[in-house]
Amino acid sequence: MRKRRSLAMNLDAVAQRAGVSTSTVSRVLNNLEIVKSSTRSRVLKAAEELNYHPNLHARSLARGKSRILGIIVSNMENPFFFDIYRTLEADAHAQGLEVVVANTDYRSEQLLASVQLMIGLRVAGLAVIVSEMEQHLIQTVSGSRIPAAFYDVGTPQKNITNIRVDYRKGIKKTVSYLNALGHKRMAFVGHHSTLGPISERRKTFLESVHRCSPGAEPRIFAGPDGLDGGRQAARELLESGFRPTAILCVNDFMAVGVMRELREEGLQIPRDVSVTGFDNIKLAEFCSPSLTTVHIPREQIGHIIFDHVLGNSREEREVGREIVIDPELVVRDSTGVAAKN
Amino acid sequence: MRKRRSLAMNLDAVAQRAGVSTSTVSRVLNNLEIVKSSTRSRVLKAAEELNYHPNLHARSLARGKSRILGIIVSNMENPFFFDIYRTLEADAHAQGLEVVVANTDYRSEQLLASVQLMIGLRVAGLAVIVSEMEQHLIQTVSGSRIPAAFYDVGTPQKNITNIRVDYRKGIKKTVSYLNALGHKRMAFVGHHSTLGPISERRKTFLESVHRCSPGAEPRIFAGPDGLDGGRQAARELLESGFRPTAILCVNDFMAVGVMRELREEGLQIPRDVSVTGFDNIKLAEFCSPSLTTVHIPREQIGHIIFDHVLGNSREEREVGREIVIDPELVVRDSTGVAAKN
DNA sequence: AATTTTTCTGCAAACGCTTGCAGCGCAGAC
DNA sequence: GTCTGCGCTGCAAGCGTTTGCAGAAAAATT
C-alpha cells in the first residue's frame, strides 16, 4: 500500500455501496444496456447519494480519446471570433461534445501554449481561429493526428482543412463602391500587426485605390486593435493633416473608434468623411451613424469548420481542403457622396 | 497482450529512443533537477524528435489534481463577464495554470453540464460568474471540495467565497442623480429574467423612485438581453404612449439598443430623454452620445475571485466569505436636465 | 583500497476508469 | 437429469503518467 487518498470518490466507492463491481457501475454510468434494471437503479442511487462525478481524466485515458472539441481564438472579445466560437459550441453540444476554449490574445507564445494544451488534452477535434498562426505550429498540429481546421492560414495540410474569407474581394468591393461615390482621397486604418490577413487587407486596399483612381495617394494609419486603437489611429490621421474623404477600417470596432474621434473633432459622418468597417458585427447596426461594412458570414464559417473537424465530411477532411468564402458589402449610413473640396 | 496502439506516443516511446526509463523521462519533462545534464539533453532531443506531448489526462490522474482553473460564465459576449474572465485568465497564466471556460448562455441545464464538466475535470479551482445560479448546484460544488468562488449567489458556503456588487447602491445613486436633474417620469428597461440580480435592480429602482418623488409612476419594460433586446423594449415603451424623461437600463448594451430606437423615433438624447446604463463597458464611452452609467470594477472583481480561489487568501477562503463591492456613477453625455412638459 | 556519501536512475505501484473475456446462474430444450 | 443458450456480472489488464523507494554508479572520505 502506497498512497491512500482519504476520500476516494471513485467507481469503487459507488460499487461498494451498491454491492456490485466497478465494471457494473461503469456500465450503468455509460448507459450500456446490458445491466439488469434492478442493479441499475441500485447503482444510480448509490452514485447519487455519494454525489459522485466520474473523473474525466481517467475516462479519457482509458478510452484513449476525449469527447472534447478544442477551440483556439485570438480574441474572444471580438465578435468575429466570438460568433464563430458560439456556433462551434452549439454544434458541439448538439453532438454531446464538451468544449474547451483558449484565448491567445494575439500572442504567439500563448498560441503555442494553447496548442500544447489541446494536444495534451487529446481533444477529439481542434478549431484554430487565430490571426497569428505560424507554419511550424501547423506542422505540430498536423503531426498530432488530431482532426483540425484552421482559419486563414494559407495552404491546407494533410489532415487539416483551411477556411478563409476572400478579403481581397471585400476590400475591392468597398473601394469601388466609394469610388463610385466620388471618393479619391482615402485612408486605411489597420492595426499594428504584420499578420497575414491584416497586411493582405492593407495591400489590397492600396492596389484597389491605385487601380480605381490612379492619381490618388492613399494613406495608411494604425493603432492597437479595438475601439481605443481606432480612436488613436484617427487621432494620428487628424494630426497628420491628411484629410481623406473616406476611411476604410480593418474591422468594425476600429471603425467605431475612428468615428468617435472624428466626431470629437467636429467632423460629420458621412457629410465630411465616409467611414467603413469590416466584419459586420452587431454593433455596426447600432452605432451612430450605422456603419457601412463588409459582412463576413461567421455562423456559416463556424458550421463549416465543425463539419470538417468532427462532422460528416470526414473523407474530405482527410484530404485536407481549402474553402473560400465570399464577403458582401453592407451599405448603411456612414458612407455618402464625397465632399467637394 | 490486449490492445496494442500502433503509434504509442507516450513516455515509453521517448524513453526507448533516449535509452532511459520512463521515470527519467518524466523527471526531465517536469524539470526535477536530479537528472544528469547529459541524460537530460538526450531525453529532450528524443522528445523533440518524436514530437511528443505529454498526455494531460494521465498526468492529472497520476497527480490526483489538474493545473486548471475552471471558469463558468453566463455570456462571454457581455463585457461584464468577459472582463472578469480576462482578468482571471491573466492571473491564472501568471501562475502557470491553464484555463478552461464554459459558457452557459443563461441556460440552467447548460450550467449543470458545465459544473459537471469542471468537477469531472477535477479543476484546481472554480469561478462561477453566472446570473442563473441555483441552490442545489452550490451544494454540488461545495460537496466536490473544489475551492470555488461565486458571483452574487446569496449566502457564502463552506469552502466557497461569494462576491457581489451592491446593485442597490448603484441604482439609488442613479435615481438621485436623475432626480436632482428634475426627472420625475422614469422608466426602467430590464431583461426578461427573474434572476436575482436583475429583479433586485428592478425592485430597487421602484423603491428609489417612490422615495425620491412620491407622486411619480415609474414604469417597467423588458426585452431579451442585448442590443436587440434594448431596442425592442424601447419600441414597446414608445408604443405604450408613456413618455418618460429618463430611462434607466439594466445594462449598457440594452441602453445602447434603447438609444438607437429612440433616435430612430426622432427623439434627441439627452434633450428629450435621458438614458443611463449599468456596468460601464468600453462601448459606453464610445457610443453616441456617450453613456452615463454605473461603473462596476470588473478587473478588481476578477482579481478578488482569483485570490480567493487559488491565491494566497487561503485561510479566509476556507471559512467562506462574502465580499461586497461598491459601484460608482459615471456621468457622461446621455443624461441632462429633465425636459419641461 | 575500503568505506561512506552523494548523485543519479530504474522498478513498480498507484491514479480511476473502460472493456474483452470468462464465468455464473437460470430458463428452456432435449 | 444433462445440455445449451442467454442475460448478466466480475475479473483483471491496460490507458500514460508520477513518485517513493531501492539500488547502481560515481565521487568523496578515510
How large is the share of residues in beta strands of chain A? 15-25%
Number of helices of chain A: 14
- Count all strands of chain A and give the number: 12
Estimate the mean pLDDT confidence of chain A: 88
* Overall CATH class of the largest domain in chain A: Alpha Beta
Whole-number count of domains of chain A: 3
Biggest interface, chains and residues, is: A-B, 55 and 55 residues
Describe this structure in words.
The structure is a homodimer of 341-residue chains. With 341 residues, chain A is α/β, with parallel strands linked by helices. Chain A has 3 domains: 11-54, lambda repressor-like DNA-binding domains (434 Repressor (Amino-terminal Domain), Orthogonal Bundle); 67-165 and 298-326, 3-Layer(aba) Sandwich (Rossmann fold), CATH 3.40.50.2300; 167-296, Response regulator (Rossmann fold, 3-Layer(aba) Sandwich). In chain A, 47% of the residues lie in helices and 16% in strands. Chain A has helices at 11-18, 22-29, 37-50, 56-63, 79-94, 108-120, 135-144, 167-180, 196-212, 227-240, 252-264, 282-286, 298-310, 314-319; strands at 68-73, 98-103, 125-129, 148-151, 160-165, 186-191, 219-223, 246-249, 274-276, 293-295, 322-325, 328-330. A 6-stranded parallel beta sheet of chain A has the order 2-1-3-4-5-11, with helices on both faces. The first copy, chain A, has a 4-stranded parallel beta sheet with strand order 7-6-8-9, with helices on both faces. In chain A, helix 11 (252-264) links the parallel strand 8 (246-249) and strand 9. At the A-B interface, helix 4, helix 5, strand 2, helix 6 and helix 7 of A face helix 4, helix 5, strand 2, helix 6 and helix 7 of B.
